[in-house]
Amino acid sequence: MDTSAGCQRVQLGPTNRHLVWDWNGTLFNDLNDVVAATNSTLQWMGHPAITSARYRELYCRPVKTFHEKLIGHAISQPMWDVINAQFLAAYASNRRSAALAHDALICLAEARRLGMSQSLLSMMWHEQLLGDVAHYGVTAFFSVVDGDRDGKGETKASLLSRHLAAQRIAPRFVIVIGDTVDDALAAQAVGARCILVTANAAQSAATLKAFAPTVRTLTDALGIVRSSDGV
Question: Is the pTM value of this prediction over 0.85?
Answer without folding.
Answer: yes
